[in-house]
Design goal:
The complex is a heterodimer of chains A (474) and B (379). Chain A is α/β, with parallel strands linked by helices and 474 residues long. Chain A folds into three domains: 16-92, Ubiquitin-like (UB roll) (Roll); 111-227 and 361-473, FAD/NAD(P)-binding domain; 231-358, FAD/NAD(P)-binding domain (3-Layer(bba) Sandwich), CATH 3.50.50. In chain A, 26% of the residues lie in helices and 26% in strands. Chain A contains ten helices and 26 strands. In chain A, the strands form seven sheets. In chain A, strands 8, 9, 10, 11, 12, 13 and 26 form a seven-stranded mixed sheet that branches. A five-stranded mixed sheet of chain A has the order 2-1-7-5-6, with helices on one face. Chain A is globular. Chain B folds into two domains: 7-47 and 150-219 and 311-368, FAD/NAD(P)-binding domain, CATH 3.50.50; 86-143 and 220-307, D-Amino Acid Oxidase, subunit A, domain 2 (D-Amino Acid Oxidase, Chain A, domain 2), CATH 3.30.9. Chain B has helices at residues 14-25, 58-78, 98-110, 120-126, 149-162, 206-211, 276-289, 335-352, and strands at 7-10, 31-34, 50-51, 89-93, 115-118, 137-141, 145-146, 166-168, 173-179, 182-188, 191-194, 198-200, 220-229, 239-241, 247-251, 257-261, 298-308, 315-319, 322-329. In chain B, a hairpin with a 2-residue loop joins strand 9 and strand 10. Chain B is globular. The chains are: A alpha/beta (474), B alpha/beta (379). Chain A binds chain B through residues 50-51, 75-77, 96-102, 104, 106-108, 110, 194-195, 197-199, 203, 205, 212, 214, 369, 371, and chain B through 129, 131, 230-235, 254-255, 273-277, 279-280, 283-284, 287-288, 291-298, 301. The structure holds flavin-adenine dinucleotide and FE2/S2 (inorganic) cluster. FE2/S2 (inorganic) cluster is lined by residues 58-61, 63-68, 79, 81 of chain A.
Chain lengths: 474, 379
């Protein structure tokens, strides 16, 4: 399942690592997550569900859905998609978590840290926010549970559109590296923020290497990104039904293909780009189905996919996944103008992977916990934290940036991160003569990024959010 | 919404829905339940689901024992699996608890409850993961246990509706109209229901409801926090609790550990937010008792309100000064476990005019004299 040749990417595989899965020996490469290594070894069923004993594989591959949990070295419920495989690791499937005897201290110890600006999430929004705040002399700490910084950028091999002076024409993978290089000294990876508390300012609780730490912050920028949407269809929980982002991660970060043949669901930009990336990695794409009567993504992306001989079926949806333990096929159906299934139009595809590219929802858990006002804004992906143009939410000192503040794309995320950081800088009294100017430029840049017809939906969504914020202030 | 009803119940928690069910079962189906949120969104939907009979006052022991008898058949009666498990309550005894606990067991035994005082070694047989170093013993009663409050409340509600009770959700009671001590109607943000009988089952908000007819309840709201962990294999039969630390926890049917801890420094308030202080105290205390839980991840924490009376016993029955105004509140943190019997008694009072078990010790008027309280308050 490992990619050996790729037109754009080269995978320098590091040291070979030995571990066991359900007692049997397996090999992996250093830097791979457990889930990726197992997938490379052809293992799709990681565990079984608690109540109905259904097979479980990974779905999101970025630590957001808990579908990939296994027992690792005797610790139950470890998210294997964000846990790096280590020499000698004992990995086991689980039905229910099993406890091993606890050897740790009987009294829990919680360490204490302090920072001016805490940034949750090391994607484009979070990293750019951190770099900006740091440049003004603020103490900054970025926390991300993934083993790699860069968020969704690390898997975006396509060149960026948009007007951004610095980044247009650069591949996402490169942008991630540049940003991380600037921020590396204040980024903490493989650490999960598990709670936000408003007692006496902002307090975050994080888990790192199995221990808890408390982080006291004057300002918090939540740049937690988004999680992929699921679709309702029969057998949608079978291993082999993967989010488009997960497929990208697997291919472009780890150099592992998701399967041999794929049905793509969703013809927005993500569905089209990932289809093309699958083709580049040598995977067969049997077709792209889209429930809307038209293709949602950019014309250039659709044309590229079509040129490779991949049909795009509009007004078509997925009806069910076939297979017992993992996907062995898919059945699609045509839809009439009222979205009803048209009987007799079912079509069966022999595929081992169904890739869902049906949109994203902002990851808003921390906003909810902090008591931020949330509004349902369909243009921004659903439930969104209400915020000002300066990116401050309704809870003082808590800012939102990137997909967590409403689904957009990487360029707008970077700009929002910058604006949020500049707002923190001002509130912390660290402004210089430059700050106002930089602020103005960032607002202008963001406006330009959203000015095209493809930015229109997001623009309308943001306007609604700002209007709610203003109303609350009155 | 019905324009009039023979009885109006305020509150859609276990007390409100249970009373609706009990009334309907006795043939009184012209009943309206008013709930300002969804069903089971008050303390009932936030509680630990613990069901214990090991109390220290005769009234509480009797109510709890009768309730257990009813819980044992409730799944069948409500046609729904209430996830009732009788794994017992293991009450941890520290050195200076021992004498009092032995006395309590004697009282409980005299009322027919099979509780017993056990050694640390016996406690470890019941909970193999228990760290017995800090403990001096425990009391244990096998027929104590826990159930799923959501299933109980929705089970009661559905059966009551099937028999003809009307349940109105998202309906906020704004006023009770009374003339010369006689109730005329209940006003809500969705309209008015005429009635002469009102059951005040509004949990921690009961005091506000009573104030609508000029009755002063001594109840005070206190935040109590609670958490749920990720699910794991079955490792814990009983509910483990300690009155000294205020902790309680049990394992649910689906594998999660649910538990909370009281906080002596918590002021009276309607605050429902989750605190870091709770999380730390809970983790520390739980891991000290069951070190293996140090591996567990917490999935969620939340808070609910205890509706606390001066003697930590519920307020039940008619109210002096306002005719046919029935109190069913003030459970002080153990209202779920006594709900089956309490709601039956309330229904008997309303329909037959006399409950089958005396509740004179639990009426509001008891606070006029001297009071002796329940010593066992937690989960
Ligand atoms: C954290 C915690 C743990 C607990 N653990 C246990 C346990 O293990 N075992 C146990 O037995 N007990 C436990 N308890 C106590 C138990 O939950 C309560 O005693 C019990 O649920 C009370 O039920 P109720 O129906 O009387 O009140 P509630 O469930 O609070 O219901 C009252 C309802 O009235 C509604 N209401 C209020 N005002 C109005 C209005 N103006 N108009 C309309 N509706 C209104 C509210 O919305 C609410 O739904 C616990 C409580 C908490 C908070
Ligand atoms: S959390 Fe690992 S696959 Fe989603």
């Amino acid at each position: 399942m490992r990619i050996t040749e790729h037109p754009l990417l080269s995978f320098q595989r590091k040291r070979v690592i030995h571990f066991t899965f359900n007692g049997g020996p397996l090999e992996a490469y250093e830097g791979e997550t457990i889930a990726a290594a197992l997938h490379a070894a052809g293992i799709k069923v990681l565990s079984r569900s608690i109540t109905y004993s259904r097979p479980r594989g990974f779905f999101c591959a970025i630590g957001k859905c808990a579908s990939c949990m296994m027992n690792v070295n005797g610790v139950p419920n470890v998210k294997t998609c964000v846990t790096l495989v280590e020499e000698g690791m004992v990995v086991e499937s689980q039905h229910k978590g099993v406890l091993k005897p606890f050897t740790g201290p009987k009294k829990s110890h919680i360490s204490h840290m302090k920072t001016q600006v805490a940034v949750i999430g090391a994607g484009p929004a979070g990293l750019n926010a951190a770099v900006t705040a740091h440049a003004y002399g603020a103490s900054v700490l970025v926390i991300d549970e993934n083993p790699h910084a860069g968020g969704q950028l690390v898997k975006q091999t396509h060149k960026f559109f948009g007007s951004s002076r610095e980044r247009a024409g650069t591949r996402g993978t490169e942008i991630a590296k540049i940003l991380y290089r600037e921020a590396e000294s204040f980024v903490m990876l493989q650490a999960a923020v598990v709670g936000h508390y408003n007692d006496r300012g902002h307090r975050l609780v994080l888990v790192k290497d199995g221990t808890l730490a408390e982080l006291e912050a004057e300002k918090v920028i939540v740049a937690t990104g988004a999680s992929e949407n699921m679709l309702l269809f029969e057998n949608n929980d079978l291993p082999g039904v993967y989010g488009a982002g997960a497929v990208q991660t697997l291919m472009n970060v780890y150099g592992i293909v998701p399967g041999n043949s794929v049905l793509m669901v969703g013809a927005g930009n993500v569905g089209l780009i990932v289809s093309y990336q699958l083709l580049q990695a040598g995977v067969k794409v049997v077709g792209v189905v889209e429930a809307l009567p038209r293709i949602g993504g950019y014309h250039v992306h659709a044309a590229k996919v079509r040129r490779c001989g991949v049909p795009i079926y509009t007004s078509t949806s997925i009806l069910k996944a076939l297979g017992e333990e993992y996907v062995t096929g898919a059945v699609t159906v045509s839809l009439d103008k009222d979205w009803n299934h048209i009987p007799g139009t079912e079509r069966k595809f022999d595929v081992d992977t169904i890739c869902l590219a049906v949109g994203l929802s902002p990851s808003i858990e921390f906003f909810c916990q902090a008591g931020c006002r949330i509004a349902h804004i369909p243009e921004l992906g659903g439930n969104t934290p209400v915020h000002s143009p300066a990116m401050e939410t309704t809870v003082k000192g808590m800012y939102a940036a990137g997909d967590a503040a409403g689904i957009g794309e990487a360029n707008t995320a970077m700009m929002e991160g910058k604006i949020a950081a500049l707002s923190c800088v001002k509130a912390l009294g660290l402004s210089t003569l430059e700050t106002e100017k930089e602020s103005k430029e960032s607002y202008e840049e963001l406006r330009l990024l959203r000015s095209g017809s493809f930015g229109e939906r997001a623009r309308q969504g943001k306007e609604r959010v700002f209007a709610i914020m203003e109303e609350l202030h009155e | 919404m019905r324009e009039k009803a023979e009885a109006v119940i305020i509150g859609g928690g276990v007390t409100g829905c249970g009373t609706a069910y009990s009334l309907a079962k006795k043939g009184l189906t012209d009943v309206v339940v008013l709930e300002r949120g969804g069903l089971c969104t008050g303390a009932s939907g936030r509680c630990g689901g613990g069901i214990r009979q090991q109390f220290t006052t005769e009234a509480n022991i009797a109510l709890a024992m009768e309730s257990v008898r009813l819980f044992e058949q409730l799944s069948e009666e409500l046609d729904t699996d209430i996830e009732y498990e009788q794994g017992g309550y293991l009450i941890i005894a520290y050195e200076d608890d021992v004498d009092q606990f032995r006395k309590n067991v004697r009282l409980q035994n005299s009322l027919g409850l099979h509780s017993r005082f056990i050694t640390p070694a016996e406690a470890q047989e019941i909970v193999p993961l228990l760290n017995t170093d800090p403990i001096a013993g425990a009391t244990f009663c096998q027929t104590d246990g826990h159930a799923n409050p959501f299933r109980v409340v929705h089970g009661y509600a559905r059966k009551a509706q099937e028999m003809g009770v009307e349940i109105n959700k998202f309906t906020n009671v704004t006023d009770i109209v009374a003339v010369d001590g006689h109730i005329q109607a209940v006003r809500t943000d969705k309209g008015t229901v005429k009635t002469d009988t009102v059951v005040n089952a509004a949990g921690a908000h009961s005091r506000d409801i009573a104030a609508m007819v000029g009755v002063d309840l001594p109840n005070k709201p206190y935040r109590h926090e609670i958490l749920v962990t990720e699910p794991l294999e079955h490792v814990l039969d009983p509910m483990v609790i300690s009155f000294k630390t205020g902790i309680y926890f049990s394992q649910q049917k689906h594998g999660s550990i649910i538990g909370g801890i009281g906080d002596p420094e918590e002021p009276s308030s309607y605050n429902l937010s989750g605190s870091l202080r709770f999380l730390k105290r809970m983790a520390r205390t739980m891991v000290e008792l069951v070190p293996a839980f140090g591996h567990l991840n917490v999935l969620r924490q939340w808070a609910g309100l205890y509706d606390v009376t001066p003697d930590a016993q519920p307020i039940l029955g008619w109210t002096e000064g306002v005719d046919r105004f029935c109190q069913a509140n003030g459970y002080s943190g153990h209202g779920f476990m006594v709900a089956p019997k309490v709601t039956e008694l309330v229904a008997e009072l309303i329909v037959d005019g006399k409950p089958s078990m005396p509740i004179d010790d639990l009426t509001l008027s008891r606070f006029e004299g001297e009071i002796t309280g329940e010593a066992y308050v937690v989960g």
